[in-house]
């Protein structure tokens, strides 16, 4: 019974729903964006299925390690902001948290170097080291500083999508023989879709991180954090998040006009119902939000919108 309790506590510690989201985002991009691009030319992605699975595994190991070290350094703050969600010290000892952080980080990095060694792809191991270091620095200090922590997390969120096409581009750029094999494929479409979805992930993550800072302002203030709502005030932080929301909604509307020109009616309907209208609703909730619970519900809504936005990649195969 105790073992099962520890197992479920560990799953909550590594934020298993977020890890599932990473797997889904990378898997949908691989099977519904890359595969349809290659299939008409009777070729397959350079990153074959077995190495793609390893790439996903390395990504979730690095992410899980990041969640663990974040909670490790946030124990005191979480006692104030989220006492009911506290896991480290309550269910899992601090020394075990550090041990699992190291095991998962090293495992993710080793897998990256293994992919580099066994395929024409390079720099996956080095980028995994970079991600692990950034997550550690974020947990130690960056998250307590103005904007910098939010930007780091947003970049890493976008990178979780970019890493799949990065593997393809990286291999092609270093091999003339591969360039000859894949010369008939129009990679501009892949570049555009990667830019759009990674941009979406970056902006919506920027918004959510700002909202989370507003939600956690009480505990952050007691431990001398310099997050946006503490330095600039809640009202200014709300304006900051609202401006980014307007930017995102405007960008999505422009994309729908482009999709209309291409005749992608199902994609337009999907994005309108699951992304644009919910973002407008969330914008209104943000304007009137006052309490920590209000910001928590907004953060949850934004997370759901990110999920439905990424799922729109399924429609590209149609």
Summarize the structure.
The chain is mostly helical and 318 residues long. The chain is built from 14 helices and no strands.
Question: Which helices and strands occur, and which strands form pairs?
Answer:
Layout: H1 2-13, H2 16-38, H3 49-73, H4 75-81, H5 94-118, H6 124-140, H7 148-174, H8 176-181, H9 187-215, H10 217-222, H11 228-231, H12 234-262, H13 265-288, H14 292-311
Written overview of the protein:
The chain is mainly alpha-helical. It contains 14 helices and no strands. It is globular, with a radius of gyration of 21 Å. The mean pLDDT is 90.
Give the overall shape. globular
Distance between the termini: 47 Å
* Number of helices, counting only DSSP H or I runs of 4 residues or more: 14
Structural class: mainly alpha
Low-confidence stretches: none
Biggest sheet statistics: none
Proportion in β-strands: under 5%
Describe the structure using short key phrases.
single chain, mainly alpha, 14 helices, 80% helix, 0% strand
């Amino acid at each position: 019974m105790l073992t099962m309790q520890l197992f479920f506590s560990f799953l909550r510690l590594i934020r298993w729903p977020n890890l599932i989201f990473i797997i889904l985002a990378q898997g949908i991009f691989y099977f519904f964006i890359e595969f349809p691009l290659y299939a008409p030319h009777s070729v397959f992605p350079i990153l074959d299925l077995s190495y793609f699975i390893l790439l996903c595994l390395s990504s979730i190991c690095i992410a899980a390690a990041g969640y663990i070290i974040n909670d490790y350094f946030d124990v005191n703050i979480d006692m104030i902001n989220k006492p009911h969600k506290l896991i480290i010290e309550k269910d899992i000892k601090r020394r075990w948290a550090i041990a699992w952080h190291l095991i998962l980080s090293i495992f993710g990095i080793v897998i990256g170097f293994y992919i580099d060694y066994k395929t024409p792809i390079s720099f996956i191991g080095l980028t995994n080291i970079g991600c692990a270091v950034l997550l550690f620095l974020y947990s130690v200090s960056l998250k307590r500083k103005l904007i910098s922590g939010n930007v780091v997390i947003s970049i890493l969120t976008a990178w979780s999508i970019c890493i799949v096409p990065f593997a393809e581009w990286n291999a092609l750029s270093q091999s003339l023989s591969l360039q000859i094999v894949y010369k008939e494929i129009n990679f501009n479409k892949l570049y555009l879709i990667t830019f759009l979805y990674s941009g979406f992930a970056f902006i919506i993550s920027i918004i959510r991180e700002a909202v989370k800072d507003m939600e956690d302002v009480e505990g952050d203030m007691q431990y001398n954090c310099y997050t946006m709502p503490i330095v600039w005030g809640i009202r200014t932080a709300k304006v900051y998040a609202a401006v980014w929301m307007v930017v995102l909604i405007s960008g999505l509307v422009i994309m729908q006009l482009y999709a209309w020109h291409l005749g992608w009616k199902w994609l337009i309907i999907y994005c309108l119902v699951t992304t644009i209208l919910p973002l407008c609703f969330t914008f209104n909730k943000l304007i009137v939000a006052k309490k920590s619970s209000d910001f928590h519900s907004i953060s949850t809504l934004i997370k759901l919108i990110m999920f439905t936005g990424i799922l729109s990649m399924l429609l590209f195969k149609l």
